[in-house]
Amino acid sequence: MTWVDPVCGMSVESPDAPRTTFNSVEYRFCSEMCLRAFDDRPGRYLKGGNHPGFDRVRHGDENGSGGSTP
Question: With left for phi above 0 and alpha for psi between -120 and 50, is residue 64 left, alpha or beta?
Answer without folding.
Answer: left
